[in-house]
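Journal club side-thread
Mid-discussion, someone asked how the predicted structure for our own chain would compare to the paper's figures. Pasting it here so we can look after the session.
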Amino acid sequence: MIRPTNVQALAKYRIWLEFDDGVSGEIDLSDVAGSGVFKIWDEPGYFEKVHIAPHRAIAWDDEVELCADSLHLELTSNADGATAPAERLA
C-alpha cells in the first residue's frame, strides 16, 4: 500500500505531495476551490492546514479529505492534471 509521507500547501490552491515509493509532485486543486465543501478553503489560513490523516487521506481538519491513491495516480499518469475532482474524494 502506497502511503503519502509529506504534504505542503502552496499558493493558488496547490499542494506538494510526496509518497513512500518516491513519487512526488505538485497537484493543482484550484478547479474545486470555492465550491461545495471546498468553499471552506476560502477562509484565511485554512488551506494551509493540510495534513496527512491517520487513514492516509490528505485532509483539512474533519471538513475535507482527498483520496491519496487518486492523487498518486494523478501524479503518475496524468501529466496534464486531467483527473476529475470527484475521483480525488476519499
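Post-session note: The beta strands are 4-10, 14-19, 24-28, 51-52, 58-60, 64-66.
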